[in-house]
Amino acid sequence: MDRFSSTTLFPDTLSGTRDDLTEQLTILWEQIKAPLIVPLLRIAVFLCLTMSILLFVERVYMGVVITLVKLFGRKPEKRYKWESLKDDVEHGNSSYPMVLVQIPMYNEREVYQLSIGAACGLSWPADRIIIQVLDDSTDPIIKNLVSMECQRWGSKGINIKYEIRDNRNGYKAGALKEGLKHPYVKLCDYVAIFDADFQPEPDFLWRTIPFLVHNPQLALVQARWKYVNADECLMTRMQEMSLDYHFSVEQEVGSSTYAFFGFNGTAGVWRLKAIDEAGGWKDRTTVEDMDLAVRASLKGWKFLYLSALKVKNELPSTFKAYRYQQHRWSCGPANLFKKMLMEIIRNKKVTLWKKIHVIYSFFFVRKVVAHIVTFVFYCIVLPATVLVPEVEVPKWGAVYIPSVITILNGVGTPRSLHLIIFWILFENVMSLHRTKATFIGLLEAGRVNEWIVTEKLGDAHKMKSAIKAYKKPRFRFGDRLHLLELATGAYLFFCGCYDLAFGKNLFFLYLFIQAFAFFIMGFSYVGTFVPSS
User: Fold this and answer.
1) In the CATH scheme, what is the code of domain 76-82+93-318?
2) Is 87 a catalytic residue?
3) Which residue range or ranges hold the Glycosyltransferase 2-like domain (predicted)?
4) Tens of pLDDT, residues 150-162
């Protein structure tokens, strides 16, 4: 039998057609590269370098300020008047301010007992505190469980109110707003807010309320978050690194310099008068907490952050839950920036420097530039220069600036410095979603008001059992495959292959490693992250 020749398997006509197509594409690329691609890429490099410098200056400034605060700054008890509240023999408990504790929740089967129990365990005169559970649950079974839990605590003498609505208008902001409309709230001076997975220590109110009582200019006292599941997996360790920088640097610097920072939506105590004066809760964005904080600040109110006061909470432990959370946290601020820019500029109650701080530092650099430059520069533009060698990126922009920014971010969590490489790769992947969400917020596009409650698994024992239960998840194409991550990974891999073949340095290693990170996240699903310990 005659052997099959190459011409039999691949006829000359097909081979010639393939070669002609490759040659035509090469000619087309060369024709458009010089007049179109090169100028556009140079403009992109210039814009990205400019944004990198803005972010670099902001990070260095924050680093200098936090260093000075740690070395020479006065503690909150020294900057503001603070005296422990004492019993009044003549007036009894009526000398203590009335405190409302709000716990908004939505189908929180795993954590409702933890949050309600912690709130009911707060140390404060029993007749001077009201626990208000705002249950927007749509699952009748969960709603019944929450109601019975409130009744159980009520039978123990706790002044607890179980409030429900017949709709979810405004989501969390709507629930908090409706909660303040009840007649008994008029008796209250302050409101403490805790999300359903937050567990304050019994002395929380004793450590926060005195600041508000003795300093009438203060509207908010914010506590720090403490993560009960930070060591659960590698992804939660990465989140801890990002959030630790936010709390140990950004919040501390804002509180120490301009007495302004973004309310974290939970683990804080507000003066009710300040909420009313600022216009109350609004649901125009998905960051109702930041919205209220900015409006209250524009009214002249001051905020205080207590880094030593920590409240336990839970980090998202699945990639799906974390993606939804980051979309809300990135889209909301950008959308709020667009809606409040002119309001901030026209405000006459705050100083020019505070306006600049809020517009430039708080919003523009941290909420817009930081997300865009991370993805566009390090995952799109920089790899593109491999394909277009005519465009060069200076070493200070490609290596030195990002290295300094990374180090300044990483020092917030010293115990995880050995994971810094994983954190860089993780943040670059997440920057894809943050950038997309930022543009959605600025343009007020499709998912601008999307609100999906972050999934919670409960305490450590429940987490372990839940992880075991998820070892064999039911395959769902949309949940397991993330096309944007896979497409970006493919682009980086192609650039890496090109650099390996034609480049003269080791940049292809970064491209391959980052592409691998995008592929891992692109194929991820519940339970895929390897424990960090």
Assistant:
1) 3.90.550.10
2) no
3) 190-385
4) 999 999 999 999 9
